[in-house]
Amino acid sequence: MAASIFGVFDEVTQNKIISSKVLVVGAGGIGCELLKNLVLSGFPDIEIIDLDTIDVSNLNRQFLFRKEHVGKSKAQVAKESALHFNPDAKITAYHDSIMSSDYDLEFFKKFDLVMNALDNRVARNHVNRMCLAADKPLIESGTAGYLGQVSVIKKTVTECYECQPQAAQKTFPGCTIRNTPSEPIHCIVWAKHLFNQLFGEDDPDQDVSPDTADPELAGEAGKAALESEAKADAAGGIKRKSTQAWAMETGYNAEKLFNKFFRDDIKYLLSMEALWKKRKPPVPLDWNNLPQDVPATTHQVAICDQRLWSVQECADVFAKSLSSLKEELIKQGEGGMLVWDKDDDPAMDFVTSAANIRAHIFGIPSKTRFDVKSMAGNIIPAIATTNAIIAGLIVMEGLKVLREEFDKCKAVFLNRQPNSRKKLLVPCQLEKPNPKCYVCAPKPEVTVILNTHKITVKVLEEKIIKGGLGMVAPDVEIDDGKGTILISSEEGETEENTEKFLEQFGINNGVRLKCDDFLQNYNLTIIIYHRDKLEEDKEFQIIGDVSEIQAKYLEDKENEDKQPNGLTEKQATEAATAVEDEDEVMLVEEEEIQQITVSKKRKHDEEPEVVNGDTVKKQRLISDVAEHYDDIIS
Amino acid sequence: MNTMEGKDKTNVDKNNKYDRQLRLWGDHGQAALETTRVCLINATATGTEIMKNLILPGIGSFTVVDGQKVLGEDAGNNFFLTKDSIGKSRAKVATDLLAELNEDVHGDFLEEDAEKLLDSNPDFFSQFSIVVATNLCERALSKLSNHLWSKNVPLLVCRCYGFIGYMRLFIKEHTVFESHPDNTHEDLRLDRPFPALVQYCDSLHLETMTSKDHSHTPWLVILYKYLQEWKKQHNCKAPNDYKERNKLKEMLKKGIHRNEEGVLEDEENFEEAIRSTNMALVPSKVPSEVEKIFNDPSCTNLHSESSAFWIMARALKDFVDNEGEGALPVRGTIPDMTADSERYIQLQQVYRKKAAEDASKVSQRVQQLLHSIGKGADDQVEPLRPFMPSPSSDGHTSLFSSVGLISEHEIKTFCRNAAFVRVVRCRSLVEEYDNKSTKLQELVLHLDDEEPDDAVFYVLLRAVDRFYEEYNAYPGWYNDQVETDVSKLKACLTKLLQDWGLSLNIKDDYIHEICRFGAAELHTVSAFIGGVAAQEVIKVITRQFVPFNNTYIYNAMKQTSITLEL
């Protein structure tokens, strides 16, 4: 055909493309498609960055990679493959984390447009802030199974990625995991913690032994349990030693490990009688006396992955995976450790068997290895078609951004099938920035509810400021007129502060902390809201909009007043939270299609689904929905 | 048990490679994909993008039919045609590069013009599971679609024209039972409890159980009991309006235990019963979509050529009319609920057992029906084309134990999805091109507005086709003729509307826009259509989800799309 492809674009667009320099963050499913689209749409100068290496499970959609590339840098191979097809393009690849300080404000300022092709919220938050700081337009995107979305972020014109509160991380209280599991996921989380205790990094938050600090044990029952704890220590003699050191001493002996975790610890749990007044008590298992009559799936399925294992089979796999993992650990030498990986067979076998044994003990339905992999690995189904569609949409939005037609930019949502109005795509108007956003507002502020007597500076830094608020290298000073430095991004400067509680610095209700992240060029004021006890025994709570917290606690107050009607404070708070959560979390619906087992939830062919939103609010951020899964166990 | 050796190794590799998609369409969906043969006509950018998205997830094989040589602009917008291949066979180059995407997919090509091939050897196309055609002119398309229509081979036609993407599906009849509708009700039968459910619920006594058991009784049982109580007080009638349902909820609230101080206990199961009341009281009836299938002549008049789907549909209908007493087979699944595992599993078994009984009754009817059309187990006949994908030849699935000509597994799946079975029938190209077609009148509804929707591009593309028939070139193809082409295209459009007997005013802006496109294929539009089209092909192949019917238009300028039945 005679007319050049370029002729379709008007002259302004052509010139914008020819003179553009763009950044693609992520060389995965969307990234590969996007790189191809940009090259073939005439973008002359593209930089692409990805920290990851190529895995076999990428090959069903990340088409720039082949089998022989497994283990290599995604960004590098994507670049080489794209150049192989089109040698004229200028592509720069970085095998690195976008959160590294090498990619500072100056780096971001080089580009006319930044496009995210990411799979996690932490990096999305960071790029959002870098683009705001550099005042560069950002296109955000995400896919989950058949669903996808694209959105445009432009400072002061549209909402930023963090303008709306993000769905709360789904975590489980420690005592549910350690003492009173009631769902398969609780056992799977426990099994992953057990893996880390035995082979990985020691994390006190991932203890797997019975928890004597369970709030349900308050009062008399608690006393009894505490007494028996002393006994157990004496008997087991392993409490004071690290689990890993003990396991090592036994040579990762399957029988000893099995009997400790599935017999002795369970017996100990049984001694906490208060827990079992209203629950079905667990039944300890003995290595030498395993039930032989528990039926596995009778249905003949050839694939081992999708068949339920009997307790005996679980025990066999447990033993076998223990010995493989032991070998791997020994290979690493002194101080070595293993990192749990869903694609590592022994690691996956270990978690599947341990989780199912524990499930059996607590009378919880067991799960196939296939399902456990989904749940433990936070797997989000992914296919080529959805990524292709989304990457096509991204470039179309990108052209509008280059022309600076932000009023024409849209947030576009992809449905699984045409909706009731026969629309497969739902384009929505972009929302205006939230003036109370704690990231993009001119003077960002955020309220954190916590108990200043219980929160250390370390927790403030790691869990709240870095984990919750997404800063990378914060400096924090107390806004007390004296400028007391609480946390310094310079290593070692404030080390003596880390273990101290906030109240030791005079931080109490209403105190303001000034946080500054040099890399993100981001200043945030944290207002401390002290409370002795938080709902659901949370450690802290981050509230973007102060009026929200006032309304909320007012509501609690009302509910507390209603106590004579029978609701306890805890229930009332829960009810209030449930209502609040409904807007965000209830959007995620799991569809049951095939009930193969007695499983209570989760099938192989389900996906996080956005219910029926035609509006921005409702459909907001599938990426987060996807991520909601990411966060289940992290 | 976990050691996989020798030939199982390839299955492990495949399971790992396809892990992320197996979680969407399951092993049977994958097995269907792996036995599929796809034909692509014309290796345009759109064509190769579609194939890429089918080869990656692992179709069985593909064949590219294309008589053209690679041109400069092909290399510019097609990822699978490189600069150094200019002048070579487009079919060959594209096939070689596409085949690199997945070593498990076999690729083949034929360097021949599709239209010529249709004249010389039309049956060539009948060997495929589905044919995907891109950038075919109207004349060739007519021949192709008529031929494939008569051979019952599905055809997907795709085209990217400037900022416009277009797809049209031709499929005579497509039957689905895993249709995965967006909203589904649980099938709990509280309005018409079956004997085993009654018996189970009656065996539990809320009044006498311990408080631990009381708070762990599944809400289904609780709601059943309170419903019976209600009926006793209301002439055996269930609550049938908002007010009455609220009264029932009040009764449930009163059933929550109180502690010694008179404070309500935390009984989540009662909360769940209250929350689920509305949902659970929705009467169990045959959905209208399924009624339609029951009344379809293919269902009422079975014959020796009837497909497995229609035989099962008929068995289902007969079941509903007889032992089902007006209701579909019980689905056999219950939602997650607060309960002790023991009773939850018992309750689940009650439903599952009933579902199995119902399915076995349907199965008996299937065997009778097969016998009545001369395809019974003892009859010496050609097997029916299986509805569910059969296991792949390497024996990787053994899910299907075949009893007679329709497997038990198929029948069970059919019964479990009884409320969701669907039939899609597209109209043929002959029907679409019939100037008296009633569907054309419907177009007016889309266009008779100040701001017509994307259906306007259908009309414009048809005018473009007319232009091509007349001038053997596309409007705006030659940069120096854009202006004259505008008036020519306008004339074509006017004639087209006259033939249709429609009086519509389509703005000149659209005509200018179309001429500016010059029939160019934009890569990013091709990439989008490549994704959407491949997804539709996968729906057709796996028989999961309902494919669109029958025309789809994407407007890349506005990021909007529309589905029309033409």
UniProtKB/TrEMBL annotation, chain A:
Q: Which keywords describe this protein according to UniProt?
A: ATP-binding, Metal-binding, Nucleotide-binding, Nucleus, Transferase, Ubl conjugation pathway, Zinc
What is annotated as the active site? Answer: 175 (glycyl thioester intermediate)
Q: Which residues form a coiled coil?
A: none
Q: What is its main location?
A: nucleus
**Entry's Gene Ontology molecular function annotations:** ATP binding; metal ion binding; SUMO activating enzyme activity; transferase activity
* Example GO biological process: protein sumoylation
Q: Where in the cell is it found?
A: Nucleus
Residues covered by region (Disordered): 556-585, 597-616
Q: Which family does it belong to?
A: Belongs to the ubiquitin-activating E1 family.
What's the protein here called? SUMO-activating enzyme subunit
Organism per entry? Sinanodonta woodiana (Chinese pond mussel)
From TrEMBL, chain B:
Asked if the Swiss-Prot or TrEMBL record annotates the protein with the keyword Metal-binding, the reply is no
Q: Which SUPFAM superfamilies match?
A: Activating enzymes of the ubiquitin-like proteins
Q: Which organism is it from?
A: Sinanodonta woodiana (Chinese pond mussel)
- Residues of the THIF-type NAD/FAD binding fold domain: 18-559
Q: Would the keyword Disulfide bond be found if you checked this record's keyword annotation? A: no
Q: What protein name does the entry list?
A: NEDD8-activating enzyme E1 regulatory subunit
Which GO biological process categories is it annotated with?
Answer: protein neddylation
Q: Which keywords describe this protein according to UniProt?
A: Ubl conjugation pathway
Q: Which PANTHER family match?
A: NEDD8-ACTIVATING ENZYME E1 REGULATORY SUBUNIT, UBIQUITIN-ACTIVATING ENZYME E1
Which molecular-function annotations from GO does this UniProt entry contain? NEDD8 activating enzyme activity
Q: Which family does it belong to?
A: Belongs to the ubiquitin-activating E1 family. ULA1 subfamily.
> Which InterPro entries does this one have?
APP-BP1, ThiF/MoeB/HesA, ThiF_NAD_FAD-bd, Ubiquitin-activating_enz
Reading the lineage from the top rank, the first entry is: Eukaryota
What pathway or pathways are given for this protein in its record?
Protein modification; protein neddylation
